[in-house]
Structure formats: C-alpha cells, structure tokens
Amino acid sequence: MEEKLVRPRNDGVLDGNGDDDDLPMLSSHALAALREFIEEQNQLNVDERREETGAEETGGKVTLVSEDWRLSQFWYDPLTAETVAKEVIALLGNNSNPSSRVACIACPTLYAYIKKIKPNVSVQLLEYDKRFGQYGSDYTFYDYNEPEELPSELKQAFQVVVADPPYLSKECLEKVTETISFLATPGKSHLLLLTGEVQKDRAAELLGLHPCGFRPQHSSKLGNEFRLFTNYDPGMRLGGWELEK
C-alpha cells in the first residue's frame, strides 16, 4: 500500500494538506510512531499530576484514593464537595487579607476540590491517613486524640476552618473543637462543621454553630443524616441558616 505523506502544521497539529514546502514530511509509519509517542507523553503528564495531587479528575469529578472504612472515611459526593469548596472560596474572596489560609480537618475531598477550582489557594489538610502525605507541605498528620499536637506555625493561622470529625461521639467533637480553637484566628475565622444531625446541640454549645439548609451527601450512601453548620450567616448560600421550628 502506498504510504501517504503527512506534514505537521505550524501549531504542532498533524495535517495532510500542508502547503509549506519548508516543513519536513512524514510517512504514515512515522506518523503512527509519532502519535504513539505523543500519547505516551500525555499519559505521563497525567500520571505526574495524579502523583502530585493524590486525586484524579474524571469529567470534572475528582476521584481520591479509596476510602478506608476502618478509619471512618466516607468521601463527599461531587455536588457536596463542589458546593462547600465554592463556599470556602467565596469566603476568601470576601476577606481583605490576601494571604488568607484554609484548614481542612479530616476532609480530604474538600481539599482536593478547592485545589481543583482554585489551585493557588493556601489550604492545609490535617488528616490521620498518611496516604495523603503525597500532598507534600499541604499535609499535616493529625490524630484527634491529640488535638493540639500540631506544628506551632499553624496556631491561629487560618481565616477559614472546615472540620469533619471522623466519629459522631461527644468526645470526638470536643477534641476536634480544641483543634479548631488552636487553628482559628480569634474572632476573625469562619468555621464550617460537617457532621451528623445528632451533633446539632453539641455544635451549638461548643462552637456556637447553626445548621444550614444544605444537606451534605456522601458517595457511599450513609444511614446517618449529615448536616453543615456554620458560625456565620451564609445568607442565600448553603440554603441559608435553618430557622428553629
């Protein structure tokens, strides 16, 4: 079979109808080899991005490492993760401090979505699972049983703190509350808590939080009803504060 000669266009895209006689011409076999090489390089670039972030994007969806139920890990569904991530970014936009930072306590899905939507945002993930050490300096090992065993440079350093305690117990929320107090800038931080409906009264008592109308959901459908609580009135966002009946 006759080999068709193909010219590369000036923009690097292969074209069979090139007019520039100064450009080299490739045989169909060479073209096939070049395409294979380009595909391999593209795949390498994708793999490198996955290694850097620990997350994979699939049609706009972020896929994390697999959940480890032994660590009480249940990732948010895309709508929840994106909604909360956009809320965090909106809060940063309303903050006059250009160096504002975000702390994500035990919510790696949120970290991944914030970085996907706005990569230059300064976000610190505090998480027990050391698989997330692949986030580099954005990762801090965190054990809620030692709520203030954290680097001193994190103390009162965050203008937005989001927490999702791994367990629905009174003890766990009390200890996570200590961590929030350690991280938050006194009197200036926006606090968001994602936890079970059963923690509603404790969230109000310990942190002065109110429930929002928005209902968080998880990719693994859980039996417990989850809620989002904040220490600020979100207005029309997040379904607003839910009024007491």
Structure overview:
The protein is of the alpha/beta class. The protein has helices spanning 28-53, 78-93, 108-117, 170-183, 200-207, and strands spanning 7-8, 14-15, 56-58, 61-63, 101-105, 122-127, 139-141, 160-163, 190-196, 210-211, 226-230. A hairpin with a 5-residue loop joins strand 1 and strand 2. Helix 2 packs across helix 3 and helix 4 runs parallel beside helix 5. The radius of gyration is 24 Å and the shape is globular. The chain starts with 6 loop residues before the first strand and ends in a 15-residue tail after the last strand.
Bin the strand percentage.
Answer: 15-25%
Described by strand count, sense and barrel closure, the largest sheet is:
7 strands, mixed
- What portion of residues is helical? 25-40%
Class based on secondary structure composition and strand pairing: alpha/beta
The residue-averaged pLDDT reads 81
The helix count comes to 5
The rough form would be described as: globular
Q: Could you give the order of the helices and strands?
A: EEHEEHEHEEEHEHEE
Flag low-confidence runs: 1-24, 44-54
- The tally of strands reads 11
Task: Report the C-alpha radius of gyration, rounded.
Answer: 24 Å
In which order are the strands of the major sheet placed? 7-6-5-8-9-11-10
Amino-to-carboxy terminus distance:
80 Å
Region (Disordered): 1-21
Protein name: Protein-lysine N-methyltransferase P3X46_009389
Biased composition (Basic and acidic residues): 1-12
Subcellular location: Cytoplasm
